[in-house]
């Protein structure tokens, strides 16, 4: 019996797919890379933007014929879109060949749902309300070697006006600090070389004994072993000097911060309910650069938020320059039913938003290229993550998140290698082992 998992969305979801794999392995399934060969197919979905949903719907729909040919194939849909209000009903009606549906609060029940489906042949759709749990006890099948993800918290309380995450992931709940640290310790002992702590807003982490995020990070950074530590995502409203001090103190913690700004206009930031101003954001970056001058800052930006004017957008463009982002994830605003912003007047026309996105991408790319070009002739330490079959080169990232490619006779995956950078192409560096 073989499983195939299709994952959409963020790193949280990628990690949850590893837990889904853990459940399936316990049920006796083995992994199958070819979707057509699988006996069970699980879609772990995302609903952050409309196109994430459309992708999932398209791929689920494509299985209709497959299911007709292979009657005992099990198709399961889980994750954020499954948890979204009204979507379970829609999936029930539109995709009669979907056998199992589960949400973000009952992923741990997937094994039982499969048993029920097998026993009764009827479709099993099961959603739960949030139960405040922080431990699922599921042993994940890790797929990211040499990297590994560790959840430190679940959910979000921020209710940014455009965002659906608080509705589909529930309120914030933090795992115990001891559990997080012991997971990091075992991963380091198992030989993982890059450990990423995950939460929607890591800065609001609170451990059982009042442990703050900087204190947790400090403990994780003190774990023995030859590994790098990363964390995401930081919310600018809670970003602190204390956190920066911890990053500075530990060599293991990468000098790279992902700090989503979303917009450079105070008016838009306020409508987004982000609870910081452009000035506060830029002062945080200045503080960070004072303390850790080489720190890379990456961000997320939304264009075309309701009522965004050309002037607001130019504020975003100028902020990109001032903040000196080394790269950014950039999105066109996508209205999500049930969120505050979806009901706002002044939705921006698609053509205008598309034009802004391409201008923004150009501005960010220019900065990325300049930073990459600055690497040429220098050395950088790369953690080798994989092999690019097309380029016939090994690849990996430096601590700042820059991708480096190099040739090697021997398999280097999982090794730290020092590259002499010979050329830069956009965001990527090319070099040879020193
Ligand atoms: N918790 C993280 C990120 C969550 S989602 C944070 O607060 O930073 C990742 C990114 O998706 C967000 O930072 C935002 O830029 C984008 N995003 C969220 N909702 C969106 C929407 N409705 N339309 C477009 N982009 C959105
Ligand atoms: Fe969404 Fe805002 Fe929470 Fe991030 S902090 S998940 S953008 S509501
Ligand atoms: Fe992540 Fe998408 Fe859910 S971004 S939290 S998988 S809505």
Short summary:
The protein is α/β, with parallel strands linked by helices and 434 residues long.
Topology overview:
Elements: E1 2-7, H1 11-26, E2 30-31, E3 40-45, H2 50-61, H3 64-69, E4 74-79, H4 80-83, H5 87-94, E5 100-102, H6 110-120, E6 124-126, E7 147-151, E8 153-154, H7 165-169, E9 173-174, H8 177-190, E10 194-198, H9 213-221, E11 228-232, H10 241-249, E12 256-258, H11 266-271, H12 278-291, E13 296-303, H13 310-323, E14 327-332, H14 350-373, E15 379-388, E16 393-397, E17 403-406, E18 416-425, E19 428-433
Parallel strand pairs: 1-2, 1-3, 3-4, 4-5, 5-6, 7-10, 10-11, 12-13, 13-14, 17-19
Antiparallel strand pairs: 8-9, 15-16, 15-18, 16-17, 18-19
Helix pairs in contact: 9-10, 10-12, 13-14
Could you characterize the architecture of this molecule?
- The structure is a single chain.
- The chain has 4 domains: 2-126, Rossmann fold; 144-254, Transcription Regulator spoIIAA, CATH 3.30.750.210; 256-373, Transcription Regulator spoIIAA, CATH 3.30.750; 379-433, OB fold (Dihydrolipoamide Acetyltransferase, E2P).
- It is built from 14 helices and 19 strands.
- The protein has helices at residues 11-26, 50-61, 64-69, 80-83, 87-94, 110-120, 165-169, 177-190, 213-221, 241-249, 266-271, 278-291, 310-323, 350-373, and strands spanning 2-7, 30-31, 40-45, 74-79, 100-102, 124-126, 147-151, 153-154, 173-174, 194-198, 228-232, 256-258, 296-303, 327-332, 379-388, 393-397, 403-406, 416-425, 428-433.
- Strands 2-1-3-4-5-6 form a 6-stranded parallel beta sheet, with helices on both faces. The protein has a 5-stranded mixed barrel with strand order 15-16-17-19-18. The chain has a 3-stranded parallel beta sheet with strand order 7-10-11, sandwiched between helices.
- Helix 9 (213-221) runs parallel beside helix 10, helix 10 runs parallel beside helix 12 (278-291) and helix 13 packs parallel to helix 14 (350-373).
- The mean pLDDT is 97.
- The protein binds S-adenosyl-L-homocysteine (SAH), iron/sulfur cluster and FE3-S4 cluster (F3S).
- FE3-S4 cluster (F3S) binds at residues 9-10, 12-13, 46-48, 80, 165, 168-169.
